[in-house]
Specification:
Helix content is about 45%, strand content about 30%. By secondary structure, the protein is α+β, with helices and mostly antiparallel strands.
């Protein structure tokens, strides 16, 4: 998810911290194909039983169920094509957010005044914010609470290293 560069890269102006954040998707494309084939196979078998029993209109509803499940997964996979990048150099932190391959947000923050805040909610969820000079931007909204905490700790450590150097 992220990495912190060594001190030699600091001298060259390269990234001290570089992270690319992706939403987690536990089902691979092959797994999706297998799941859809299993659902279609079960629906076909049940549909044949209903057809034989004379309740042929049920077959259309079973087909509609398969179509709706397919559409829900496709929407989920489309949403998975979003990501965020964080790049910390000696003089700035660059945050970029991409949705379906297009950049929708670009923030350039000064690292010496940057605060990394994790706000916990009663529901157990939390939000990760970058704040600097009165501006606040949420990052990693799609990450799990432990991933947000880990990212915040790593980014704070990189910022502390930058400020003491």
């Amino acid at each position: 998810m992220n990495k912190i560069q060594d001190s030699t890269s600091r001298e060259r102006g390269e990234a001290l911290f570089d992270a690319v954040l992706y939403p987690h998707r536990s089902l691979s494309p092959t797994g999706f194909l297998i799941l859809m084939l299993a659902i279609a196979g079960c629906s076909t078998a049940v549909g044949i039983l209903f057809w034989i029993a004379g309740a042929w209109p049920v077959v259309g509803f079973l087909g509609l169920d398969v179509l709706l499940i397919y559409a829900a997964f496709r929407l989920s996979y489309r949403d998975a094509r979003r990501y965020e990048t964080l790049r910390l150099t000696r003089d700035r932190l660059i945050l970029e957010r991409f949705v379906r391959g297009r950049r929708v947000l670009a923030e350039d923050l000064q690292p010496y005044w940057l605060n990394v805040l994790v706000e916990e909610e009663r529901s157990g969820q939390n939000r990760l914010y970058l704040r600097s000079h009165g501006r606040s931007v949420e990052i990693g909204a799609f990450l799990s609470p432990p991933e947000k905490t880990d990212l915040a700790d790593n980014l704070r450590a990189a910022l502390a290293g930058l400020r003491t150097a």
